[in-house]
Backbone:
């Protein structure tokens, strides 16, 4: 009975049955789907082995072909949970609890609004590789700070102040020259006074000699 129900599920992708049978079918068919999915990642010998095991359970070559082609491609990215059980209420005749079991990936209406999750792997990096991007970012920030208007204004101020120091040096060099010229002028003024005093003394000496 489970083999026939599994063949019907693989062919029609969903069937209606009682809840108890649906739970039993779920445990029966999901390992077979896992074997069909694993064939793509194995060698030809192991793939043939999996086909023979599935055929021994289903006893239907058309169902096996459908399982290893269409169903295996559709559920290739799913790690497990290939079927879904949805309860439908009680049956009118014997009041049995009914349910629908279906293959999850073949329900296009239910999966239309749900985006597929991308599986990502975290790679372990060394501390040096982790610190390298941070150092690069720090270097970029330093370069950006040097290129700011404040840095350019400071450079302009430094350039404006640089020529001011040169006149001060020139004034310092000219100061001794001015002092030397002043002393020379004073010496020139005192020289005629000394010359004028010398003739007066000579005249006085001549008068004393005549007397």
Residues:
């Amino acid at each position: 009975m489970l083999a026939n129900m599994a063949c019907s599920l693989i062919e029609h992708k969903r069937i209606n049955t009682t809840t108890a049978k649906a739970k039993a079918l779920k445990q029966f068919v999901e390992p077979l789907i896992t074997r069909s999915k694993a064939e793509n990642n194995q060698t030809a010998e192991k793939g043939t082995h999996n086909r023979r095991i599935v055929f021994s359970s289903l006893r239907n070559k058309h169902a096996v072909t459908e399982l290893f082609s269409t169903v295996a491609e559709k559920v290739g990215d799913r790690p497990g949970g290939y079927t879904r059980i949805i309860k439908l209420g009680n049956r009118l005749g014997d009041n049995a609890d009914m349910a629908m079991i279906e293959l999850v990936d073949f329900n296009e209406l239910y999966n239309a609004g749900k985006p597929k999750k991308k599986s990502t792997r975290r790679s372990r990096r060394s501390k040096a590789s982790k610190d390298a991007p941070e150092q690069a970012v720090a270097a970029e920030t330093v370069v950006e700070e040097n290129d700011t208007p404040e840095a350019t204004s400071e450079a302009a101020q430094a350039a404006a102040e640089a020529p001011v120091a040169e006149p001060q040096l020139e004034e310092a060099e000219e100061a001794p020259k001015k002092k030397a010229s002043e002393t020379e002028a004073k010496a020139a003024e005192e020289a005629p006074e000394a010359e004028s005093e010398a003739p007066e003394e000579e005249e006085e000496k001549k008068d004393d000699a005549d007397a």
